[in-house]
């Protein structure tokens, strides 16, 4: 491949790739509910897109791809129609997903054994395969086009714009979607100060959790004195239930590479580093391929596009320490030191990696940059709210029907996400709380459902934006146990440098364990609050300063539940084993012996056709008997 030496070379490639690559999105086909009428000629410039990442891979999407390719060969269509492995479509609850373009037909929960029927129906008989189309939960309508689905309708995909639409291992497809045009524009049409001003005017704030104004950080790094400067991409995503950054890197790595190069041009940096967890093998491999391709095309390396600007990127591996998501701890880890936070100032923008000025942004922040430069700050800052511009990617997980990856405009409410995009709570259960911001965030309740999601409102409500984890809980979840779970995670992940975090969080965890074991007192509830406030005020870094949030927010919103644990020795949600007793109602028990057969510790005794009894001293509260009983004879209190 001849290197791209000028913007004109990039433009020629763009036009060439657009012609050879099947159109992935257009408006030729109307948005419609499924109709039985035959398709237009579906073999005209069609591609079959299959999610090959995350949950879909775990559900045999790799085998599905092979079966689809085999089915196309069998029908003699393999030269005309290609199967493309893409990144995440977002709708993880419906995976594996197969999308046929350009008509945007969206098939869900496709199994390898469905491949032949799907190919034959869609491309030979030219009819949609109805049984694999998505059925709306509320309306029971069968929908063909994702733009008609409540999951996608409210979304605005900027950071995720290419995920699910391109082969992430093909730089050609990225260029065909306008890739590297922003870098070209930056190098040729803009001065570094102009780009920084554009980022400032866009209102983009850091998507890693802190929400610091991105343009301001770039400006500080540019103004800092140093012969060598660095650009660092923070891909150390460690929140339980979070997979936003990983999905972007797996589905569209070139967008991050392009943005890092733009940042290097603005700040005066010539070297980029991606700090990524070693346990993300698909993201790591995708990054390696993308960096190699960018070098081959001359989009990284020396004198990019014929200018004086040179920039290269290398990968640094993390060992999975959550605290290394904090920028100073991350930098120490990259230097081969213990991953511990340090007091700021000096900030990394002034004195960072190897003592040099270093600009640190996370994956999602970088993924927004190319679009802002191409469409303009005015376009971007019209999305969102006054203080929180643009969109935010969330990993929607927990007790919700539509688990997945979503990108929504700032200012959308929790109700719109949970009951609109998320499709409501599983099994018709009652919504109880949502944890935003991961282990550093807090629990929001029913009274917060109409709260607009933005940095300041979430913080005022006792939670935070965080990197974008959003875990939904229902009536069966114990909020005391939930706080204990997150505290346990924080205790394990603390670097141990400062006493408030190292010792204080252990004490918090011990008190919570005492409460969930039925040994707590009302005095312990006072200690929880007081100690939590002290830890927030005195910890060294963001991990310690936010670690008490799950405890403090649940104390504020679920104090009665805490009180039940300490005054009645009762867990209202029946989740704390030491506070839960299983009981067999003699009036309903038929003596069928099913419960006794499934009890793993033989805690249930009784002859056949006689009332059975559970020994509370042997019972481990696993719930097996409750699930197996067909007569509703087993109670929990």
Portion of residues in beta strands equals 5-15%
Based on helices, strands and strand pairing, what is the structural class? Answer: alpha/beta
Percent range for helical residues?
25-40%
Please give the largest β-sheet. Answer: 5 strands, mixed
| Neighbour order of strands in the largest sheet | 12-11-15-13-14
Query: What overall form do the CA principal axes indicate?
Result: globular
Number of strands: 19
* Poorly predicted ranges: 26-37
Average pLDDT reading: 91
The radius of gyration computed from the alpha-carbon positions, rounded to a whole number of angstroms, is: 27 Å
Provide an overview of this structure.
With 637 residues, the protein is α/β, with parallel strands linked by helices. It contains 24 helices and 19 strands. Helix 7 (192-202) runs antiparallel to helix 8. The longest helix is centred in the last third of the chain and has 18 residues, at 499-516. The protein is globular, with a radius of gyration of 27 Å.
